[in-house]
Specification:
The protein is α/β, with parallel strands linked by helices. 49% of the residues lie in helices and 11% in strands. The chain contains twelve helices and nine strands. It has helices at 23-40, 58-69, 71-74, 91-105, 114-118, 130-148, 159-171, 175-180, 201-210, 226-241, 245-260, 284-296, and strands spanning 12-14, 19-21, 49-53, 77-84, 109-113, 152-154, 191-193, 269-270, 277-278. Strands 5-4-3-6-7 form a five-stranded parallel β-sheet, sandwiched between helices. Bound molecules: zinc ion (2 copies).
Length: 297
Amino acid sequence: MICSYCANKAIYFQRYSGKKLCKKHFIEKFENKVLRTIKKYRMINRNDKILVALSGGKDSSSLLYFLNKYKDLLGIDIIAVTIDEGIRGYRDKTIKYAKSLTKRLNVEHIIVSFKDRFGFEIDELHGNYCDFCGVFRRKILNMISKEINTNKIATGHNLDDEVQVILLNFIRSNIHNFIRLRYKKVDLFPKRIKPFLEVSEKEVVLYAILNGLKVLEDECPYVNNVLRYKIARFINEIEDKDPGIKYSILRMYEKLLPHIIHLDRGNVSKCKICGDPASRDICKGCELLIKINKLKL
Ligand SMILES: [Zn+2]
Ligand SMILES: [Zn+2]
C-alpha cells in the first residue's frame, strides 16, 4: 500500500476519505485538520493563555503534544494541569506519565488533588459518586484557571466523545444537555475548547503512537455507563460499514442546533458561593460539597 500523496509506504487507510497515508502525511493531515477546526470554531486567539487539562491518558497527552508543537504559530501560552481524584491503582499510572511528558516537552505542570482542595478522595466515597467526579473536576479546573490567570481551558475530547454525548442525550431525551453541549446561555469563563473535536479516537491513538507518546486508557474503574458504551459500539459498527457516519451525526447536530435553542428554558445564574454558572442559587459542585461534608460529620 503506497501513500496517496508520495512514494512512501502507507501505514493508514482513512476509509471516509479513501486516502492512504504514510507516517509523514498522516501527521500532516491530522494536524492540518485540528488547525482548521480551531479556526472554524474560533477556539483560539493570539495571546490566549490556555490551561490544558492533562490526565495523562492518550487524548489529553496528544492534545498537549499538539498545542506545544504549535504554540508559537498560534501565539499562545500553555500550562498543563493534572487532577488527582484519589483513585488508587488507576490515576497513579497516568499522573506519572503526565509528569514525564511535561518534563520532556518542557511545559509548566501543576498537579492538584481532590484531597488538597476539598479534603476528601473519591475512594473514600466508596464509588457511588461517579457523576460527582466530573462536576468536581470541572470545579477544580475553574478554580486553578482563575488562580493562574488562563482565559481558556482545553480538553482532549475527540469526535467519538462528541458523537456519543449527542446520541446519549438524544436517546435519553435530555433536551437541556443536548442543547448545552454547544450552546451556552451565558458565556463561560474560562471558555472551554476541544481542538480534537473533528478527529476520531482511532486517529488520535495513531497520532500518539507515531509521535512516541504512551497510549494509556483513561477509563476510571468506577465508571458505570453501560448505555454510553453500547452507543460507542453501535456507532463504530455503522462507521465500519458506512465510513463518515460520525461526521454526518456531528453535522446534523450542528444544523439542528440553531432551530432548537429556544427549547432550553432553564435558568442560568451565578453560584452564590463560588461564582460558577448555576441553574439554581448554588452550583452543582457546591451543592455536592455541602452534602458530602454533612455525610462525613
Ligand atoms: Zn506520504
Ligand atoms: Zn458554586
